[in-house]
Amino acid sequence: MKTKPIVGILGGIGSGKSTVARQFANLGCTVIEADKIAHEVLDEKDIIDAVSVVFGKDVLSPDGMIDRPKLAARVFENAELLEKLQSIVHPPVMEQCERLLARYLTAPAISAVVLDIPLLMESGLDRRCNVLIFVESPPSACLQRARKQKGLSPEQIKKREKFQISLDKKRKIAQYIIQNNSDLSGLAEQVAQIYSAVMK
Ligand code: ATP
After folding, report:
1. What is the mean pLDDT of residues 5-32?
2. How far is the CA of 17 from the centre of ligand 1 (A)?
3. Which residue puts its alpha carbon closest to atom 11 of ligand 1?
4. To test ligand 1's pocket by mutation, which of 10, 18, 31 has the most ligand atoms within 8 angstroms of CB?
5. Whole-number pLDDT of residue 150
6. What is the model's pLDDT at position 1?
7. pTM confidence score
8. Domains by residue range for the chain, with CATH
9. Closest Cα to atom 20, ligand 1: which residue?
10. Considering the chain, what is the average pLDDT of its residues?
């Protein structure tokens, strides 16, 4: 039997990884979205408690939930705090990714799984993929998108990227490179080409 494709998407902040993942979903692939899972994990009571023990109640919003932008601002200023947060959040996020992956791999109706996991290589989940794609996008476009979508300044992006494996290393391990330097239809065309090669 042919191995079910597990497609991992790599690329810089704001490069278009989730957009590419959505385009694979439009072609019938099932996507595991780590950002969404991380948001759900941060809403769990025991995680909120663990985070407020480390960071204090000032990272909570008035409704008792975690104020994610406030927490992000704290951790990206301090490697030690980032590590502490990751030690709380990373294990349950990875467990859920693994649970979903196991479920999707055995579901006959699912033909391919796409991992939209921003820290794919850092988490080691790239080793579970049989297809790796790097999304290449001009740095100025990445900055503009990240500012528009997440309100991040160029300095904030630089700080975040400092904690990540270099784009060069990510590009090197990919079998496919998508150029995200035009419009969404240009991107969709490249995704469709890779999809048909992978599904052959
Ligand atoms: P992050 O690293 O922050 O998770 P990402 O790499 O997943 O970001 P996306 O969320 O896919 O990036 O893209 C960022 C924004 O840029 C989105 O609003 C998306 O719709 C837009 N975008 C991406 N590529 C294009 C494109 N070629 N044309 C127009 N808009 C685009």
Report:
1. 97
2. 7
3. 16
4. 18
5. 87
6. 57
7. 0.93
8. 6-37+93-198 (3.40.50.300)
9. 19
10. 95
Ligand 1: which of 17, 19, 122, 185 to mutate, most ligand atoms within 8 Å of CB?
Answer: 19
Phi-psi region of 133 (alpha: psi -120 to 50; beta: other; left: phi over 0): beta
pLDDT tens digits along 73-130:
899 888 899 999 999 999 999 999 999 999 999 999 999 999 999 999 999 999 999 9
Q: What is the pLDDT of residue 85?
A: 96
Return the pLDDT at 37: 97
- Ligand 1 neighbour 23 (Cβ under 6 A): no
The tokens for 23 are 């385009």
Asked if pLDDT for residue 137 goes beyond 60, the answer is: yes
Task: Please spell the DSSP secondary structure of 48-105, one letter per residue.
Answer: HHHHHHHH-GGGB-TTSSB-HHHHHHHHTT-HHHHHHHHHHHHHHHHHHHHHHHHHHH
Q: Which atom of ligand 1 is nearest to the CA of 152?
A: 3
Return the exposure string of 62-89: e unless at least 16 CB atoms fall within 10 Å of the residue's CB, then b: eeeebeeeebbebbbeeeeebebbbebb
Establish whether residue 8 lines the binding site of ligand 1, counting it when its CB lies within 6 angstroms of any ligand atom: no
Q: CB of 34 closer than 6 A to ligand 1? A: no
- Whose CA is closest to atom 24 on ligand 1? 16
User: Average pLDDT of 152-166?
Assistant: 90
Distance 182 CA to ligand 1 centre (A): 12
